Amino acid sequence: MRSVFGRRIFGLAWLCLTTTAGGLPTHQASAIELSPTTVDSVATDNESEEAEEQESLGIGSTAPPIDIEHWFSDANGRFEPNPEFETGKVYIVEFWATWCGPCIASMPHLATLQTELADRDVQVISVTYESLEKVETFLDREYKPKPSAKSTHEPATDDDATSEPGEETDSKTDLNTETKPSTYRELTSAYCLTADPDASVREDYMVASGRTTIPTAFLVGKSGQIEWIGHPMSLDEPLTAVLDDAWDRDAFKLAYSRELECKQAVRAISIALRTDAPESVLAEIDKALEEFADLEAATGSLRSMREYAVFRNLSEKVQAGDVDEAMSLAKEANLNPRWEDRFEDVLFAHALKVQDYDKAIQLLELYVEQSPKDSIRKRLLATMIVDQWEATPELPSDVIDAGLALAEEILDQRPASSLYRFLVARLQRASGDVPAALVNAETALEESGKTSRYAKEIEKFIAEINPDIEAEQGSDRAANTQELETAPE
After folding, report:
1. Which residues pair with 195 in a beta bridge?
2. Which among 317, 333, 344, 388 could bridge 322 via Cys, Cβ 3.0 to 4.6 Å?
């Protein structure tokens, strides 16, 4: 039985040892505005690719009417629901969702913009295509702003993009009100928060413009045309220029078109990373880096993808048995610490797989020496060992003992960790100490709670080793009986 604990932490090391084409790790999409990001964030689905191809709304296009079903707030009575844009007024049409951390983090800033600029005929309209019930539940949540030294008026970064829901920043300029809001309903009452479950407005804006991430804001100018598209945290400068009739739409259109070209190149490369040989993808990345060298944010994405492609290339060489060549190329590549650690994990996993146990022990000792206080690294190494034992139980005892020593060391540092305790139990079973494994597994189950996400796995482990306990006890009883029967009277 390979543990979920093990699969999660062991998966990346085996990524290029178990597949020929490799794979690109993905996470839940976060808002990116062609900003420096990890390679995980640039993968897209088929729907997004089709949206890009069908792009028909851009800078200078007439903004489509917004036929929205539910208006939850109207800026405290300042605005009435109206699908048409009035000439001479400026609108911000922003797309959000209740599950989107960066969207929620942008809410205080939108509230500030609306409060400060309402007298200049600015209207903020936030749109989600979620259900009425889901939005109502969200709005009743408690709003807890977190102090931050960074102004919320700065452009969004990757840290912003990966914020957890509810983790908003709240500087002194966020909300120009005497009383801070206590719920999201109160916070968003400063502007127009809406829901459009039939997603018609999303189709007219997000899909038509080829946008695939939220939050995304569309700035509609006084003539009813799209002046700017981007992250709502970057609205201030273009909004001020539009209001002052100083916005150079044509210049932004050229820059925006070039960013879209780069975005398409990034998307194509991210897809190629999943299927094509990494060496050929590296060539495409280098070509794109040269072509879009002037777009610093976009090339940050490309550089991240290049690091992953190099890692995958090295890992595939290890898989093919070209370990020496892979190590030589790794030195030339000058991997950053993140990918260097992962490449070392691949080398360790490979040594276990090909049963080069002396090499495995040598690597393990080296890695622990390099990062003696890194409990996560030690857990990874110990998990690899027990996963390998569960796949091939003939694993030598000295390798198992090395893994058990690491697991017991990190458990001593965090004795309340059910995850570490269960890891110790698995390794104790591998070492043959089944009674101790049972005690630690039962303790881990009690500490984690029977309703935890790992409870069934621990219960399954306990059920599997209970027969071992009974068999061992039965063997002891048989031995004792035989001793009694053969003992001299």
Report:
1. 70, 128
2. 317
Q: Which of 407, 439, 326 is nearest to 6 (CA)?
A: 407
Rounded to whole angstroms, the Cα distance separating 86 from 66 reads 12
Q: For residues 214 and 97, is the Cβ–Cβ distance under 8 A?
A: yes
Write down the residue that tokens 């989107």 correspond to: 100
Could you write out the DSSP letters of every residue in 43-72? ---HHHHHHHHT----TTPBPPP---SEE-
3-state helix, strand, coil in the chain (%, to 5): 60, 5, 35
The phi-psi region of residue 432 (left if phi > 0; otherwise alpha if psi is between -120 and 50; otherwise beta) is left
Distance CA 207, CA 224 (A): 19
335-366, pLDDT tens digit by residue? 888 888 889 889 999 999 999 999 999 999 98
Residue 216 CB coordination number (10 Å): 21
How far apart are alpha carbons 450 and 439 in whole angstroms?
A: 16
Alpha-carbon distance values, 78 to 86, 114, 115, 122 (Å): 15, 10, 11, 11
Rounded Cα distance, 260 and 266, in Å: 10
Q: What amino acid occupies position 163?
A: S
Say how far apart CA 405 and CA 303 lie, in whole Å. 39
Low-confidence ranges of the chain (pLDDT < 70): 1-55, 146-179, 297-298, 468-489
**3 state DSSP class of 217:** strand
Read off the DSSP letter of residue 291. H
Which pLDDT belongs to residue 157?
35
- pLDDT for the residue 470: 55
